[in-house]
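User: Design a sequence. Structure:
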């Protein structure tokens, strides 16, 4: 599928290694924005889906994204230009460390990232896809350190990672002065194992709110919670 259509925008993805998936849509719909962010940064933008979703959900005036892969960067720019919020969206073609060096004095009220997280020791013959999917392209500790530099004092950082990585990710985040205030653990069905953790951090220690989200009761029979979370985006809801 070269194009993915949502209620208020379309996303082309034929030039991106990582296609639109449940993880990205979940994160874009779930990410807290109660601090009314003025400036937003999407790290590892891919198609640009997260930045576009935040543009729809918020009044943020400055929504930046960074993407290292050239094809994905060009597609992200194209997708931004084709939305109703193109004047608020901007993508940089840069590696994360380069961006931090260049923009270290810039502070963002919301940073959001759907990072590569296949840390198993295998690769495919598709270099572009490997870059998008493996943690060695953007290790968690490098991501967290960058966030700690670029996040405003009252800003928030949202991400989605495998549940098995949750405890170690939180430990690293806390070592950089970022504390979880909201955690949602995601299961495919009521009887399946927890597969993903949606995490929100801030520099201000807050009471940790933890809950669980189940996507489907049975095949294509979605839960009320999942429909409620994503109904502003998915055509099927």
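Assistant: Done.
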């Amino acid at each position: 599928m070269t194009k993915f259509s949502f209620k208020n925008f379309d996303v082309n993805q034929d030039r991106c290694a990582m296609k639109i998936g449940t993880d990205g849509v979940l994160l874009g719909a779930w990410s807290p924005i109660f601090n009314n962010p003025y400036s937003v940064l999407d790290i590892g933008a891919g198609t640009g889906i997260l930045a576009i979703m935040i543009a729809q959900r918020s009044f943020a005036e400055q929504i930046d994204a960074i993407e290292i892969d050239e094809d994905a960067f060009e597609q992200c720019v194209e997708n931004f230009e084709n939305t109703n919020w193109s004047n608020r969206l901007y993508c940089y073609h840069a590696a994360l460390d380069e961006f931090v060096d260049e923009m270290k004095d810039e502070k963002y009220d919301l940073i959001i990232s759907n990072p590569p997280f296949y840390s198993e020791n295998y690769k495919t013959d598709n270099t572009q896809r490997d870059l998008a999917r493996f943690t060695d392209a953007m290790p968690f500790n490098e991501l967290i350190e960058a966030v700690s530099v670029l996040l405003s004092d009252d800003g928030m950082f949202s991400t989605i990672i495998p549940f098995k990585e949750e405890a170690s990710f939180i430990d690293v985040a806390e070592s950089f002065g970022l504390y979880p205030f909201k955690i949602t653990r995601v299961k495919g069905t009521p009887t399946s194992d927890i597969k993903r953790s949606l995490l929100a951090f801030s520099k201000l220690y807050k009471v940790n709110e933890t809950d669980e989200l189940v996507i489907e009761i049975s095949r294509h029979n979605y839960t009320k919670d999942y429909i409620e979370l994503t109904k502003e985006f998915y055509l099927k809801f």
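The helical segments are 22-30, 49-57, 70-81, 96-103, 127-133, 140-150, 166-175, 224-230. Confidence is low (pLDDT under 50) at residues 119-123, 130-137.
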